[in-house]
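Archive entry: two folds, one per protein. Generate the first.
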Amino acid sequence: MKIIKNLSVRKKLLISMLTLSVFLVTLITSIAAFITYNTMRDQLIYNRRMSVRWLQDRLDMELKNYIDRFYEFEVDKEIKTDINKWCQGKEKNELDYKSKLRLISALNETISMDSNLNSMELYNLSGDYVLLAERSGASLVPTGERLSYWMNRDASLQTNLVFFKSGKEITIAHQIYNFYNNKPIALITMQMRPFEIQDILEDIKMTADESIMIFNDQNELIEADYGKEAAFSSAEVEGIMEGLGKAETQEVFTGGNFWFYRSVKGGKLKVLLAVPDHTILAALSNTLLGGFMAAVIAVIISVIASILFSRVYSKPIIDLSAKMRTVMLNDFAGVKSEGRQDEIGILQDSFGVMLERNQKLIMQEYQSKIDKRDAQLQALQAQINPHFMYNTLQVIGGMSLKKQAPEIYTVTTALSDIMRYTLNFSGEMVCLREEIHYLQSYLMIQDERFGNRIELVLDITRDLMDCRIPKLILQPILENSFEHGLSNKSGKWSICLRGQLTDKKDLLLTVNDNGIGIPFDKLKELQEMLLNDAENTLKAESHIGLCNVNSRIRLKYPGDNYGVTINSRIGEGTTVKVLLKAVKEIKPHEQI
């Protein structure tokens, strides 16, 4: 750190610009590369997702075709009768000539319609023979071990369309049931070449590193097209298929591969696509390389620009620094701008102006000290004047007692208390007890003024008297009552002040009077004025005292409906409620 401080401005500027430029270029490049990678990665994954979906639809269509071919043997009445006769007759190992001819013709017709079929087999499940139809001919041969794969199959699995791997061929099986007792009587199988499925799998792969596998409903591998470096264990594949088969997304990234799983026709076939993560990185390599080269070029340009910039702009600053070292406070030579119109010229001119202003500031400093002392004397004088007024009121009170005029003494004492309370600027918050004492002095003077017509009722518990409230918030409310509600009312004037704690432990002060009330339109206007924000409330043209109290409370306690609310009825009186936070005064003996 010390070494950096001792470097010249030119080197500091160069280092700062290099650091900033390299950091910004690196940051922007990194963010761009990250966004590009994620965008292209999502796009490539989306493409694979669409490919798997296309394969799912294609296989679904192929399975529908095979189901239709199998059901042709069940919807043809003659063929179904021949099968029932052979499989449920007395001679279950024999087949009459006409029935045999019709069945062979039906099998050969199905084989001839699909170039991928090598042969078809019709098994008598209650006998020991199978009708075998090949492209070279047809024959009735013993079943032997041909049905071992079917007999070992779980009985709970479906039987209308089942796929098996038989050497290099794919076997497709369909079981025929007795319509009346729903018992299996025959099994039809197709031996299919895998070339068409292999072509489909090869077309769907986007890169040679991808692997795509097709399984039957027993999770047995039917056909696969593995990538160049694919190495999956059967346990790994089985675990992934089991997990994805229960998941909603049916996609997962694990073991460095993106796995996509789809089920065809309710699980008759299952498709699993594995895309290595490095294939996506390889697809992004050109983009990332281009971004990296652009970043390197930007860094080189930034370095060259920083060097040139530091040389061009630091030299006049260094020259100005050398001149400033030799200039005295009362010397203005050598600080002219030399005709420069840029910021350096402005600095040179400003330095000369600064020297001139420094001399003025020195003189102003002495003058400010003198003015400060005068202000202190005036403040002392301002403190003397209120004390003089207090003393004068006390003299008047004493004289009134000597002259046997106790009313004058009471009024002067109350006025003295009011002046002492209102002119005390020691704090904004006071105890409710002090505010009420001031209020009583104010009402005593008003009572004398209006001919002893005022009756004050206090309903406040002793514990609430210690609550601290903003100073002078009750007197404006009473003044509002005198001006707008009581002044035009004959008879006794009743004012009731109540205090209580709300359910939220806030302090609620309520002032009721028995005045003439406020007209409805003026009341609505006043209520809307009190609901406005504090700044607008302070601009009120009427009920200034009430609005001022509301504004002070809302500025002191923002939110939670703190402030002043008013309600009134013509001929019955007015009620003003003041809601504040209940903050108790901490007495000296309660402090820790």
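Generate the second and append.
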Amino acid sequence: MRLFILFLFLLSTTLLVAQISILGKITSEGEPVEFASIYLKGTRLGTTSSINGAYQIDSVPEGTYTILVSALGYEITKKDITVSDKAHTTLYFELIKKESTLDEVVVSGTMKEVSKLSSPVPVEVFSPKFFKANPTPSIYEAMQNVNGVRPQVNCNVCNTGDIHINGLEGPYTMILIDGMPIVSGLSTVYGLNGIPQSLIERVEVVKGPASTLYGSEAVGGLINIITKQPNNAPLFSVDIFGTTWGELNTDLSSKFNIGKNTQSLLGINYFNYSNPIDNNEDNFTDVTLQDRISVFNKWNFNRESGKIFSLAGRYVYEDRWGGEMQWSPEFRGGDSVYGESIYTSRWELLGTYELPIREKVRFSFSANGHNQNSVYGNTVYLADQRIAFGQLIYDKSINDRHSLLLGTAMRYIYYDDNTPATASNDSIEQRNLPSKTYLPGVFIQDEININDNNKLLLGMRYDYNSIHGNIFTPRLNYKWNSANKENVLRLSIGNGYRVANIFTEDHAALTGSREVIFISELKPETSWNTNVNFVKKVYADKGLYINIDATAFYTYFDNKIFADYDTDPNKIIYDNLDGHAISNGISTNLDFTFPNGLKTLIGGTVMDVYSINNGIRERQPFTEQFTGVWNISYTLRKVALTINYTGNLYGPMRLPLISNLDPRSDFSPWWSIQNIQFTKKIKKEVEVYIGIKNLLNWTPNKGNPFIIARSHDPFDKNVVFDPNGQAVANAANPYGLTFDPSYVYGPNQGIRAFLGFRYNFK
């Protein structure tokens, strides 16, 4: 009996020694994750993490296990581990937020909420955290670190710009706010400025035509700015930063309730830059001076039915000028001191209302007015644009396989200015004839769920343009995913169209001294696009997460509108191509997340954008053949310090010259803008950040004798012209040039430091 008791004692002691503990910490981007579930697959052993992310699983027998970690809002993470005879095993987990994975909700591809994984249309999503790695005063500038998307400066003096997607100019990109086509036409140049970034929930980017759902202008792609819902926003937040150049940007937001059923979100953005700088010594401001305020207010109304009812409005006012350093407002519009002065006043209203019926039917609407009072030297441009838009959508699931989306839309566009664009053709009586366009349309989309691994989307749209007539745009999208959903393949084919107004889109037509010529009445552009997208998620050893996103794209244009800068150096000649244009290339994003807090996002796009006109192939000006971006982030957890190193790299692009003697290079060099930032979290609600922008101090004048042609004679008072109107080369003008600021391809702002402060009170 004593021997038997001794045997049981020895056996129990052996078992106790063999059973050990697994412990560690659960974090995400350097922050602890509380209440995460940790358990050993195939066993009943598990626990939850504490408020500081720590966990411990006791009494684990020796063996090999798979540990699964899950938490609300994060990807499920797993690791294989072999438990030996150690006293304990330490294991750390770095969770990936769903906002940076395939499982987040997107709306831009199909006009209804679906997970990014399920969407047959490839949609890229960027959270506010992505943009905070390189703080900017506007969404326009913030897009510079998105692969395949480039903010293009169009004027050396007024610094207006647009956004290129895969090499296509800004007018081919539709800008949406909460799915509404708020920023378009005249406002594309300015409408991206002044959107309070404190109110942005995410930004969705679709590359390739989206005209089937969104109509004209969504030819090259779309950018949808999704604002926060009041119930998800902080009670109060502030983000302020300034630079050593004297720039000051302030973002404020606050939410409040009126009764039990009404929530409101208010955001204010103010940006000021009032410090003229001329580092390249051409007597012109290197950067346009700006004074801008934007107010955004969003309202959500709770209904007993649970149906959606929301309203939002925005007002933007901006005063910007650039020009000769001695310019002041009394010179506005004159010909003694050159300046480009732009007063912009803009209002927007948008809303969504779900009908109080059993079926899922919603009415979305928007309206905006844009008034612009501008002078470019002694050229005055006065414009007024008003747009009203309404859309009724019926979302109906027929069965488990078919999900229909039917819609009808109407857009009304009123546009008036003081240019030939709205002048009568009556040679006797010159009258102003504002442009009024009616654009009704209907569309249908069927999302077919073939099985768990295959999905097909078929869509078509018919629009009637009151000026150009019938327009039909179909599309097809196919998606395949592997059983474990770690591999996704998408194929897209679609048609797009665009109706252009040059003066609302191309400010080179206004600035400088070139005459604008139209060969004929411009016809609507059409395009066919196909792209193949492949996404792969990899969960490597030791907690490394890799996301690979690669796309090959091809777009064919008919009737493409092009601006000819080359035939006559004193003119910009607009016409439809007598031929076709092509945009094609390959884009790849690589996203690495390491368990030690290091995150790396690297992207690159190789493309070829050209036209065939009268049998002659010509590369599109202001378009690079390679663009690369990176965002490298590392968090020192012990001191709560995050380091962000961001940048972009652009290949050469063709640039317009004034004459055969013009000494400037006809191609830009390789160039790069690089930034570094240090963010210190003082408390959970408070951050202080400091950094340097444009570390390499790159500006486009490097390697060129000048950027602005004849900046000393902006009104061409000392230029001698021959009988054909061409500048004559002489001792005073050895290159035969006229004043022209259109030689621009990048920002003319050098190195600068910045300091900022963020506070979020929830």
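Annotation attached to the second fold: The CA atoms of residues 623 and 653 lie 5 Å apart. Residues 2-18 form the longest helix (17 residues).
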